[in-house]
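User: Is it possible to get a 3D structure for a protein together with its bound compound? The compound here is LMY7XDAE. I've pasted both below.
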Amino acid sequence: MTEIIDGNAVAEDVRAGLTDAIDALDDAGVTPGLATVLMSEDPASQTYVSMKQRDCEEVGIDAFDYELDPDAPAEELYELIDDLNEDDSVHGVLVQMPLPDHVDEREVLRRIDPAKDVDGFHPENVGRLVAGNPRFKPCTPHGVQKLLDAAEVDTEGKDVVIVGRSNIVGKPMANLLIQKAEGGNATVTVCHSRTEDLAAKTKQADVVVAACGVPELVTGEMLSEGVVVIDVGINRVDADNEKGYELVGDVEYDSAEEKASAITPVPGGVGPMTRAMLLWNTVKSAGDAAGVDVDLP
Ligand SMILES: Nc1nc2c(c(=O)[nH]1)N[C@@H](CN(C=O)c1ccc(C(=O)N[C@@H](CCC(=O)O)C(=O)O)cc1)CN2
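Assistant: Yes, that's possible. Here is the predicted structure of the complex:
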């Protein structure tokens, strides 16, 4: 029997577990605040940002929403970040990716105060993660860790194959999984578009994390019996329904499920965890700023 790892349920547990920390901060006169910055008309990005704002309101985090015209000069975004860095009611600054081509993503990430970088993308925070001393774990890989814990998947000594080498998922995921403390003690292989014979790599894996952004790239044929499959992909593909699209992962679900001992669905797998861990990081940031020792789930 394959276990379907329910990301909505695990995310709900994380949100419920944050209540004590938010109450403790409230007792200290602090309300955690998250600023989201959207500079895109991409419908998926707009959906994710509204979901993040709704999540904040649900748990008692102040959501400050900023939308910039995608054609606005990059300086407008840089100045907004500078202002948010100075604002004491803001504990987390999130700039939704991807950004328009004329904006220098590296400059944006460098500009965010590392103490408010709840995405964990600032070079200082990337360095801390690689060194095994993370301030903020990036939300998606952190969410994947929580899903593995919830499904009681122990990665210690296991072969984990990550398909995808993005800065948002593949690279930080690999760094977390190889670590001892709060990591996974796993043997990690990172595959990408130039990997020769991808199936040979995925077939020898105990756990496959698919995060390449290619719809249904990983099929059951490429997996071994009993594998744990974590599907990070969320691709909108054209469909003859009301929305005009459906969401599919980077894994071909039906064939993979036949082989897997546990698998995450799309939607309802990793996506909700990305959002839950953003709340987690924002509450941590507020605690750090206020010098309040909060108990995080
Ligand atoms: N600044 C950031 N930008 C982006 C990140 C990020 O972590 N920080 N990650 C991705 C997308 N992402 C977060 O913004 C994200 C993706 C998916 C979901 C989600 O809840 N998905 C739902 C389905 C939602 C839908 O109906 O479309 C699910 O999988 O069940 C949340 C966040 C890129 N940018």
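The domain at 139-271 is CATH 3.40.50.720 (Rossmann fold). The radius of gyration is 19 Å.
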